[in-house]
């Protein structure tokens, strides 16, 4: 029969050192020998970590009534295999999903409950029960505020959690930080300490600072593994407590992270001490106590001054007043006083006895001898009692010093750990406020919050990517590219949000940079949907839409849950006039993420092209409700409203859009067109002249200015602007110019209606083509080359 504990330790040793083949082999041997929940969990964990998720799923499914650890692992396996109902069943044990079931999860899984609730919330999101999912996310955060990804998912649902109330340590110090009280130290002064998941790490005294701690905080093994005598435990599990808990001034804790500069990184003098320094102080204190006690012992008591030694020089027992005895007392404070008891001496042997191994029975002493012996015994008893009393007091004094020293050390560690955890909570609160603003598309506020982070956190790639995302939302593509290029140069292996980077490059028409990015990602990871999205954007920029569609289809195949890939594919189908396929892609994106407003916008674009303006307005408004700060969405709502003869509403919408973004050329162009259609030619001319300064190379602007001048009777200025429009776009403007001067060629210019005029239709078509690159970030404004 295999001894279990050494084998378990060997399995975890292999897992920690990424030797999954041996871990699987050993765990299979263990499970074949002993079929327990513990061995089953180890076997499933070995399968799971080695990438054999289906193996782990099947071995756990065969024993549904297993331990909570096995159920949680089964839920993870089923979730990754997209078997959401089985995952939920494993976690809840066939209970109905409700608030009471969440409470049952907490009671069943204990310290693991926060992670179980997090997994359950993700299952509820996949099964479109978002209200219950939000409740589960909140309960998980209440149990464990360190779950940042749980907060992110809650924000992505459209909820507005309060970071100031979520990221708090109130009520979790004992459960999460595992800080024990001082009383626990006194019970472990003379026993080795082994750390278990249920035992606090700080439950040690100064006697154990140099003891190797066998910590199972990284594995679910019990104490028995450490006590089994199996010596080949991994180094990561045998760490001196000193290396775990030492806090030096050169390594600031999270309590210092709220400071803006390294100069402000300073803890209080008590916290900044290391455990080594505290230990040295305790040792020096103990030495002083021992010296003081030795001084007390060397002092002669009044009743001992006239006393004589009870035994002669040949006696086997030392006199209590000899220096050697005092040294023995000082060297070992825990030794009992048995050396000085009345039974500790031997009677002198009778050398005349024939049998030298036997004691001779002493004769009855005389009266004089009895009196002398009685007097000596009284003096001897007093001396022994005094010595016993001093030994006891000394023992208690040194023991109390040890306890006090351990209590001080524990108090310092508690203070340092709490301060570090509170510093982390403060950082999470700041970052939580920033991310909450970003999820609500309050991009300026988000950038301000991120900018207020400490410099060493502000310059991390994650924060840079969030700021680049916010700039993309605001159509500030130059700044967005600046941040994303910094990330790519610093970490060329980082692939997250590179699809947004490629969209920003697409808007700026930077073909070389986009091509280089696409090639880098192809060499880096061909199994990521982001890689194929970037390549699709690259070929779309080169007007190779069929090739772009192939790459985006590949992105969808690699990751069917990528809403952004469906959105880009839908916009490419619009470019190839495959509207049915386009609307199917947009609906898939909405199915994956109902808050993906770009897909709502895409459906509105299709209905607008089909002149189904009422449906287009509904979908545009749906997108605008999700992102109320997007000026481009407002612009398209205004276009549709004007098409529905809601001219005043359209004008108000354009005014609100320009207030959001005063330099949005699309909004200014459409407002100028409405002014022209309403006969307010001077206002239209002023608007278009301002627009000409923003986009000096846009032919449509010069064409519309020429039409305004023609209406005003300024023929020379009209011809001049028509000529400039022809120079900028010979193919697109020639027929429009001929139509403007010869009504026989087309309809009369007096019938100019924005959605139905050739210029307006072309503008709308081009602006829609620009929108195909919208991703997670905001919808772009039109580029200089295509309004």
UniProtKB/TrEMBL annotation:
InterPro entries: TPR-like_helical_dom_sf, TPR_2, TPR_rpt. Its main location: nucleus. TPR repeats lie at residues 114-147, 461-494, 529-562, 563-596, 597-630, 665-698, 699-732. Residues 303-325, 344-373, 745-787 are annotated as: Disordered. Residues 304-325, 765-774 have a biased composition (Polar residues). Pfam families: ANAPC3, TPR_2, TPR_8. The keyword Manganese does not apply. SMART domains: TPR. It is found in: Nucleus. One of its GO terms (biological process) is cell division. GO terms for cellular component: anaphase-promoting complex; cytoplasm. Keywords: Nucleus, Repeat, TPR repeat. Belongs to the APC3/CDC27 family. This is Cell division cycle protein 27 homolog. It comes from Aquatica leii.
């Amino acid at each position: 029969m295999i001894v279990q504990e050494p084998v378990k330790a060997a399995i975890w040793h292999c897992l920690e050192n990424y030797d999954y083949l041996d871990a699987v082999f050993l765990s299979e041997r263990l499970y074949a020998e002993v079929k327990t929940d513990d061995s089953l969990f180890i076997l499933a964990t070995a399968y799971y970590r080695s990438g054999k998720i289906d193996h782990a799923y099947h071995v756990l499914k065969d024993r549904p009534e297993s331990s909570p650890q096995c159920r949680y692992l089964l839920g993870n396996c089923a979730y990754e295999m997209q078997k959401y109902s089985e995952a939920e069943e494993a976690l809840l044990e066939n209970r109905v999903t409700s608030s009471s079931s969440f409470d049952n999860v907490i009671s069943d899984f204990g310290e693991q409950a926060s992670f179980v609730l997090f997994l359950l919330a993700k299952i509820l999101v996949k099964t479109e029960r978002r209200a219950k999912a939000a409740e589960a996310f909140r309960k998980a955060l209440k149990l464990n505020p360190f779950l940042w990804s749980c907060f992110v998912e809650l924000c992505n649902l459209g909820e507005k959690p309060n970071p100031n109330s979520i990221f708090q340590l109130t009520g979790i110090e004992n459960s999460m930080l595992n800080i024990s009280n001082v009383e626990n130290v006194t019970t472990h002064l003379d026993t080795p300490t082994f750390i278990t998941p249920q035992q606090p790490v700080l439950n040690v005294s100064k006697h154990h600072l140099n003891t190797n701690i066998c910590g199972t905080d990284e594995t679910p093994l019990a104490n028995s593994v450490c006590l089994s005598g199996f010596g080949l435990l991994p180094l990561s599990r045998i760490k001196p407590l000193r290396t775990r808990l030492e806090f030096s001034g050169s390594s600031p804790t999270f309590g210092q992270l709220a400071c803006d500069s390294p100069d402000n990184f300073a803890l209080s003098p008590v916290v900044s001490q290391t455990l080594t320094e505290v230990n040295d102080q305790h040792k020096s204190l103990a030495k002083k106590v021992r010296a003081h006690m030795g001084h007390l012992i060397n002092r002669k008591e009044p009743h001992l001054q006239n006393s004589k030694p009870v035994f002669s020089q040949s006696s086997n027992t030392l006199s209590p007043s000899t220096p050697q005895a005092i040294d023995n007392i000082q060297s070992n404070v825990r030794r009992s006083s048995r050396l000085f008891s009345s039974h500790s001496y031997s009677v002198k042997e009778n050398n005349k006895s024939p049998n030298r191994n036997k004691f001779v029975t002493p004769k009855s002493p005389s009266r004089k001898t009895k009196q002398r012996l009685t007097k000596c015994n009284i003096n001897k008893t007093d001396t022994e009692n005094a010595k016993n009393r001093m030994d006891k007091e000394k023992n208690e004094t040194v023991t109390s010093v040890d306890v006090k020293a351990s209590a001080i050390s524990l108090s310092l560690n508690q203070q340092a750990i709490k301060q570090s955890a509170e510093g982390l909570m403060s950082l999470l609160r700041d970052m939580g406020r920033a991310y909450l603003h970003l999820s609500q598309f309050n991009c300026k506020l988000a950038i301000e919050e991120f900018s207020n982070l400490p410099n060493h956190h502000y310059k991390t790639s994650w924060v840079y990517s969030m700021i680049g995302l916010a700039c993309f939302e605001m159509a500030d593509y130059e700044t967005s590219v600046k941040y994303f290029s910094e990330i790519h140069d610093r970490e060329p292996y980082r692939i997250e949000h590179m699809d947004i980077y490629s969209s920003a490059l697409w808007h700026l028409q930077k073909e070389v940079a986009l091509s280089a990015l696409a090639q880098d990602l192809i060499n880096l990871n061909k199994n990521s949907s982001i890689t194929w999205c970037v390549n699709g954007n690259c070929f779309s920029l080169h007007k190779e839409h069929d090739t772009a569609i192939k790459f985006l289809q590949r992105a969808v195949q690699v990751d069917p849950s990528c809403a952004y890939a469906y959105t880009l594919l839908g916009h490419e189908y619009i470019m190839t006039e495959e509207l049915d396929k386009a609307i199917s892609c947009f609906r898939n994106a909405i199915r994956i993420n109902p808050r993906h407003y770009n897909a709502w916008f895409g459906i509105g674009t299709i209905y607008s092209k089909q002149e189904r303006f009422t449906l287009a307005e509904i979908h545009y408004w749906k997108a605008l409700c999700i992102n109320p700060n997007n000026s481009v969405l407002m612009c398209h709502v205004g276009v549709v409203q004007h098409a529905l003869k809601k001219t005043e509403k359209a004008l108000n919408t354009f005014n609100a859009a320009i207030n959001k973004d005063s330099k949005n050329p699309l909004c200014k162009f459409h407002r100028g067109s409405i002014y022209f259609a309403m006969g307010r030619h001077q206002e239209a001319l002023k608007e278009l002249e301002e627009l000409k300064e923003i986009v000096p190379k846009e032919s449509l602007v010069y064409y519309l200015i020429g039409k305004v001048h023609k209406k005003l009777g300024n023929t020379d200025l009209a011809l001049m602007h028509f000529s400039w429009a022809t120079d900028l776009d010979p193919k697109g403007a020639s027929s429009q110019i001929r139509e403007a001067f010869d009504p026989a060629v087309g309809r009369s210019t007096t019938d100019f209606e924005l959605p139905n005029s050739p210029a307006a239709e072309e503008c709308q078509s081009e602006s829609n083509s620009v929108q195909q690159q919208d991703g997670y970030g905001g919808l772009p404004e039109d580029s200089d080359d295509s309004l």
